[in-house]
Amino acid sequence: MPTVPRGQETILLVEDEPAILDIASVMLEMQGYTVLKADSPGEAIRLAREHVGEIQLLMTDVIMPEMNGRDLAKNLLSMYPQMKRLFMSGYTADVIATHGVLDDSVHFIQKPLSLPDMAAMVREVLDKP
Asked: Is 38 a domain residue?
C-alpha cells in the first residue's frame, strides 16, 4: 500500500454537511494535521478570529448557505494573508467555474473525498510556493 503524504500544519475545514465534515476531519487528523472544524462560514470566521497561531490552509466547500467558499476565503485572507486555499465540491470544477465561483489559479478537489487523493492534494497545495 502506498504511503499517504502527512503534515503538521493547521487546516481550517469548512463543510456544511456534517458527515463529510466529520470524515474529512478524521482523515486529515490521521495524517497529522491539526483540524479546526466549522459547519458554516460564520463558524469558520469565528474560529479563525479565536485561533492563536497560523492557519496554513483553508479547505472549504464551494457552495454553502450564508456565503460561498470564495467569499469566505477573501474574508479570512484579511486575517491570514499567507493562508493557502483548497476548494471542494460535489459539483465538477466546470459547473462551478460557469457560476464564477472559481478561477484558474484555484486548487479544487471533487467530493466524495478519498484519503489518497485528498492527502496528495492537501500536500500539493501546502507545498506550493
From this structure: yes
